[in-house]
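Can anyone check this?
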Amino acid sequence: MEKNRMLRNLIMFFVLAFMVSVMGACSTSSNSSNGSENGARSEEKGGSLIIARLSDATRLDPHFITDIPSANIIYQKVYETLVVPNQDMEIEPLLATEWKQLDEVTWEFSLKEGVKFHDGTPFNAEAVKLTFDRVLDPETGSPQREKLSMIKEIEIVDEYTVLMHLDYPYAPLLSILASNEGSIISPKAIKENGESLSQHPVGTGPFIFESWNTGQDITLIKNESYWGQEPNLEEVIFKVVPEDATRLALIETGEAHVSDQVPVTELDRIENSNSMSLYRTEGLGVEYIGFNVESKAVNDVRVRKAISHAIEREAILKGVYNKVGTLANSAMSPKVFGYSENIKAYEYDINKAKKLLREAGYKDGLSLNLLTSDRKERINMAEVIQSQLKGIGVDVSIQVLEYGAYLEMIDKGDHDLFIGGWGNATGDGDYNQYNLFHTASQGPPGNHFYYSNEEVDNIIEKAREEMDQEKRKVLYEKAMQIQMDDAVYVPIRNYEHLAVYTKGVEGIWLNASNYIMLNDVTIK
């Protein structure tokens, strides 16, 4: 017995010793792993990140940019805002350290000290005032003026405190200040040559504008004097690569690192690749077919309703977009404040479509032009629409333009139909409703429907002043129902944002507005 007990004790001793050894080895291995990861992380700092893009930017001045692909180059990279949305679209401090609402129309902002613009100019209250004075000055001619028109005056209290006086209560103020339109610009750059900001942006951000070779690439370099956490990258190059297949091939071979314009037909290839990864996230935007309601061809609501009934939206989502995104019921995404599931799009009904066309006096059909940008999926959608409308006697002529030329064309109203999208930059219904449907926003600000309805205008204005959030939702639902009754657009899909990147890239993400965020990116 004693001998057996001794044997058992001896066995237990060796087992315990082995376990301690293993635990020690695991601990050492873990520490070593962490150390090597930290070491690798420090080694990974630096390098050039190449982002392959479908189109070039249109301009780089936040007061004149009206498209997210252009804003994507400068937003929270070259320029920063007083406040910023986090990954959950919650507002956090950035160039403003804190803020408080003194009354319904007065907000106080305390500003961060010790920050400098890329040209060496100090960031202070004067910079904030001059920035907003510029965008609000009618002589500037900014298409973003209406988005910030609730601001009556910026008052300088002291070097690092400003008061923002509003003309009326504006519930989503912080959300618009956090968007690209709220970017703070160097006062020196504004005073010396404000027009040059379209080609040479000057902000406070982690990256400095270096060069722009039109139609080829835009280069940003690391801001060595950045006030915040310095970026890992030394350089970011936005490279224009119009062909979808070429962009993907560059990512696959590592010649480029990221593309946020991913062909939906290539998802299986990307997900099965050993060299590429796919990033997917729900977006704030909606893609739609828009009517220019001032166009003689579609100024009759019966024609617009007929076309709405003749478009099989589910077939487009499945066949064109490979089910990327979800079927939209309105021009507002479910992720945007003010969305309502009660709005119903026109059901697919060929007989009803033909009947409406006859009632409108087009028993022999009619001819329309459809404008789209040169993105592959939109071209495919245009061809599907062309085919679907042929079934009710509508002859559609498709016009495909490079993105910048497309924007110029819809800004002028030279179209009957267009394929468009509104990538809501704030997550609030006002950014959607005011910019897309208010009479004051016709043209470049976003109302490419050239829609004007006095009742809708009044509802939108009331909603932006209403501080009770539940009442705001009711107002937006009412406005959206009127817009649907007027058949201003055909909702197609709620955005899902995609990015493809090489396996060696880490820390990259897209926010819900489809801005690519680079502060934490490293390249192995």
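Reply from J.R.: I decoded it. The radius of gyration is 27 Å.
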